[in-house]
Specification:
The protein has about 280 residues and is an alpha+beta fold. The protein is built from 10 helices and 9 strands.
Length: about 280
């Protein structure tokens, strides 16, 4: 049995693997099942084959010997195809909201403030950490947007926990997996999830090309909505990178050499992402 995070386990066998959820993650289990059931008849979507739903809050999937994706061009080509296949107009009416979908900028701000408080509580005396936190607070808009945030025209279907860490290569095709956060999501969150993903320093030109394709597919000029909402999601993604400093994290106060090294790397990455060119500056 292999632990994949604080809540889930993989039990791997030769031809299948079982994803087991902790008891308090029943909603994640249901959300993942809902996604698979929704798309099970679409043969064009490359996702792991669901073999059976088990009684002990677990799902049995077919096992695939996946390889690491090395080409960003390849990844973004597959990601756009995946986006198109999951975002036909009829799909949005039926799929539930994703776990991380916020209904207003006020709700995002509350989420951000909660994350900041947890980090500050865990690391009160870390000067470098406090500097980056203060920088993040300053780039947030001072007021919540009065624009209609949750308009249906800005809703898309997303994996939500989207990134190269939840995709793998098999027989020259890219397979996407892990849909426990999936559902209807805001288009700006979707783009920020991809551009600011912690596991991949996204090539700006490749992303710009991807963005143009997405914008053409949905048929809406996104420049205004990105200018309004990107700062919120940029800050949130950087706080996710800094999650290891969170007082609720088991490692926040650890003096273990490996953990200290990870903290140093995460802090460096947070500064790098803070200084990263914004999406709005790429598309102007």
């Amino acid at each position: 049995m292999q632990k994949i995070n604080n809540n889930n386990f993989f039990i791997k066998r030769k031809t299948y693997f079982i994803k087991k959820y902790s008891k308090d993650r029943k909603k994640s289990f249901e959300r993942e099942l809902y996604f698979y059931n929704f798309f099970k008849y679409n043969q064009n979507i490359l996702i792991p084959k669901l073999l059976k739903k088990n009684k002990n809050i677990s799902i049995t999937f077919q096992y695939y010997p996946l390889k690491k994706i090395k080409s960003q061009k390849e990844y973004f080509r597959a990601l756009f195809n995946f986006f198109c296949q999951t975002n036909h107009n009829s799909n949005k009416r039926y799929l539930k909201a994703s776990k991380e979908m916020h209904t207003s900028t006020k709700k995002i701000r509350e989420n951000i403030n909660s994350r900041i408080l947890d980090i500050k509580e865990g690391q009160k005396n870390d000067i470098k950490l406090n500097i980056i936190i203060n920088k993040l607070v300053k780039i947030l808009p001072k007021k919540n947007s009065l624009k209609k945030f949750n308009s249906k025209k800005f809703q898309i279907i997303s994996q939500s926990d989207i990134g190269i860490h939840n995709a793998g290569l098999i027989k020259k095709k890219i397979l996407f997996f892990d849909f426990e956060y999936s559902g209807r999501d805001h288009i700006v969150k979707f783009l920020c999830d991809i551009y600011y993903q912690p596991e991949l320093n996204v090539n700006r030109n490749i992303f710009k090309s991807f963005f143009k394709k997405v914008q053409k597919f949905i048929g809406i000029d996104l420049s205004s909505v990105i200018a309004t909402y990107e700062p919120f999601y940029k800050v949130k993604m950087i706080l996710i990178i800094l999650k290891i400093f969170n007082a609720k994290n088991n490692f926040y106060n650890s003096t273990n050499h490996k953990i200290l090294k990870i903290k140093k790397e995460r802090l460096k990455k947070a500064y790098m992402y803070f200084n990263k060119k914004s999406i709005i500056s790429l598309i102007k």
